[in-house]
Specification:
The structure is a single chain. The chain is an alpha+beta fold. The strands form 3 sheets. Strands 4-5-16-7-12-13-14 form a 7-stranded antiparallel β-sheet. Strand 13 and strand 14 form a beta hairpin. Helix 3 runs antiparallel to helix 4. The longest helix has 109 residues. It is elongated, with a radius of gyration of 46 Å.
């Protein structure tokens, strides 16, 4: 601001246009040059006015101080810039080092899981060979028994054509010699494959856990739901409920309140010591009236039931088969890949899975405590609660 005035003072003072006098003073408030007559004007009465050279020297000192301060700030910023450059280089090196460490650690896990997978496959192959050998031996034994029975039948047929005395004599000996054969009962081989604990399986599945609740509008009148809509059990006396279109009127089932049209989802159901139950997934469009077949295309379920001292599972792949009792079932759905899987959640092992299913429309969780019989143990199907951590992750996913 002073620069033009200072330049003017170097080549000679300017003349006031109003009074024709040299302008030797500078007004701080108005930021303009003044002559002696201008100083007497009322507008500059209380203003700070100094001779131009003195005012310029004062500002020169201030400017020099400011310049020194700016130079110091510049040096500080240059030092900060050098620090940032070094930090950038260090950060890039740290990132590269961490990346290599992550790759190395996951490589260990991958190798461990590959080794575990290989061991399980080898174990499965050996169990398969042993079971097939047992079945072949059982088959050969049954075939031999059939041949022995056929020979005995042939002998008896021959005796029937003999004279009475000869027939009586031969029949007694034939029956005595084949008494053991007549008492033999068929022996059936029941091959069983051991389940394999899969490392980190449940931890992986729990990252997709959903907070499932029951839909009271779909519940069969015989089904009693808990207040928190997390468990269901059978009641012998039907409740007085409206027969709305969403309600099952024959099948003892209730659906989850949540519907899925995309994404990956996982939930667990505590079946406890119940002797019969069904859990799984069904189409939202499943018929709620009349009987639903477990083999219907509208439902994909895993069923468990106890008969005597044996426990059996039923699924679409294998039908009925002998199994160890299950207390907690995990259900996983990958909508885009058309994949459904059932897990023994306690032992962290796969029960069975289906892939490449062409899903169309919304899907919902399916629950049935089944109709109890004389051997049934009463109890509830309980949806396992979602952990607080998973709830936070789930909420963050939805906000994202």
């Amino acid at each position: 601001m002073l620069r033009p005035h200072l330049l003017q003072s170097m080549v000679g003072l300017t003349t006031c246009d109003q009074h024709g006098e040299k302008q030797e003073f500078f007004c701080e408030e108005n930021q303009r040059l003044l002559c002696d007559s201008c100083l007497l004007a009322l507008e500059h009465k209380d203003h700070q006015v100094l001779p131009l050279e003195i005012d310029a020297d004062k500002h020169k000192v201030n400017l020099q101080e400011t310049l020194t301060f700016l130079q110091k700030k510049e040096e500080e910023l240059k030092m900060a810039l050098d620090t940032v450059k070094r930090e950038k280089t260090r950060f890039k090196e740290s990132t590269y080092s961490l990346k290599r460490s992550i790759i190395s650690e996951y490589g260990k896990m991958h190798q461990f899981l590959w080794d575990e997978e290989y061991q399980y496959i080898q174990k499965l192959k050996q169990e398969s060979r042993d079971n097939l050998a047992e079945l072949e031996e059982n088959k050969a034994k049954l075939s031999q028994q059939i041949q022995n029975l056929q020979r005995l039948s042939f002998k008896i047929e021959e005796n029937l054509d003999k004279p009475p005395l000869e027939m009586l004599q031969d029949t007694k000996g034939t029956l005595e010699r084949n008494e053991e054969l007549l008492l033999q009962e068929p022996e059936y081989a029941s091959p069983v494959l051991t389940t394999c604990y899969i490392t980190c399986l449940r931890e992986m599945l729990m990252s997709f856990q959903r907070d499932i609740t029951l839909d009271p509008e779909s519940a069969n009148p015989h089904l009693i739901l808990s207040e928190d809509l997390k468990s269901v059990q059978y009641g012998s006396v039907p409740q007085d409920l409206p027969d709305n279109k969403e309600r099952f009127n024959y099948t003892l089932a209730v659906l989850g309140a949540q519907t899925f049209t995309s994404g990956k989802h996982y939930w667990e159901v505590e079946v406890g010591d119940k002797t019969e139950w069904e859990v799984g997934i069904c189409k939202d469009s499943v018929s709620r009236k009349g009987r639903i077949s477990s083999s219907s295309e509208d439902v994909t379920i895993l069923a468990g039931f106890k008969s005597g001292n044996n426990f059996f599972l039923w699924d679409l792949q294998s039908g009925f088969y002998l199994c160890q009792p299950i207390h907690k079932v995990g259900i996983f759905l990958d909508y885009e890949k058309g994949h459904i899987a059932f897990y023994e959640a306690t032992e962290r092992s796969l029960i069975y899975s289906l892939s490449n299913i062409g899903f169309e429309g919304p899907l919902r969780p399916y629950f049935s405590p089944c109709l109890p019989n004389e051997e049934s143990i009463p109890g509830s199907l309980i949806i396992c609660p979602i952990s607080n951590h998973q709830r936070d992750v789930h909420d963050a996913d939805y906000k994202g």
